Amino acid sequence: xxxxxxxxxxxxxxxxxxxxxxxxxxxxxxxxxxxxxxxxxxxxxxxxxxxxxxxxxxxxxxxxxxxxxxxxxxxxxxxxxxxxxxxxxxxxxxxxxxxxxxxxxxxxxxxxxxxxxxxxxxxxxxxxxxxxxxxxxxxxxxxxxxxxxxxxxxxxxxxxxxxxxxxxxxxxxxxxxxxxxxxxxxxxxxxxxxxxxxxxxxxxxxxxxxxxxxxxxxxxxxxxxxxxxxxxxxxxxxxxxxxxxxxxxxxxxxxxxxxxxxxxxxxxxxxxxxxxxxxxxxxxxxxxxxxxxxxxxxxxxxxxxxx
Length: 307
Known about the structure:
Elements: E1 6-15, H1 30-45, E2 52-55, H2 57-60, H3 64-72, E3 76-81, H4 97-115, E4 121-124, H5 133-139, E5 144-145, E6 153-154, E7 159-160, E8 169-170, E9 185-186, H6 216-234, E10 240-246, H7 258-275, E11 279-282, H8 285-296
Parallel strand pairs: 1-2, 1-10, 1-11, 2-3, 3-4, 4-5, 5-9
Antiparallel strand pairs: 6-7, 8-9
Helix pairs in contact: 4-5, 6-7
């Protein structure tokens, strides 16, 4: 894959266990929790794309067959960590270094035991993190992931990403906001992160490429254009747009609007790419990591297993 004439598109899905919990709301029923990832994969396949699936360890046993099918189709599997689902009281970013390592280590162990495969990618629930998180992930063996939504501000969930680095980047062990030199590669969800500078309230989530948002198509074209303009201004060689969704969304329903919305968004990406003479290519987070390292001149001595 060549970076200089390419626009890489990333699709991620959070896969939660069924039933409603106080802090973490999953799909209403297990049949919906199981059918959504497959329906999403089928919709993306119409465009020749795949996805990266972040599966909560608490859902892994029920999604074992689905995960195997997705992996066989070339999709990437990673860990979704909501500490409350495993008995902790708060969000990942509310804990110090040692407790975060305990939480992340437990999540990875349960996940790998249930799915019988290694885990290299990670997402924290609600994009919750603090300045320990990327160091913890690197120490626990994760190589890439998506824990940030640039411009988001939610102090209760410890999801504070105002002025965070908005493009794929190697991370810093002491500052979650900055690009650094750690092995772990962070791939933020594409958002209108500059909008946060104009709000006066403390809790804010900027417009971002969340597929199930009813009005996402109204702003997607302009948001992708601005993202590419910003990348060009900053000299970013790896052009990436990142869409996300979850299995809470009813992707498999007979009258679901989400598949049509997804196909329209794919058409929007291609339209923007055509305007700039770019070729649209799907990428997993692992593949982006490889590309980023190649641009930095970092060699890969052996293949990584995406899980």
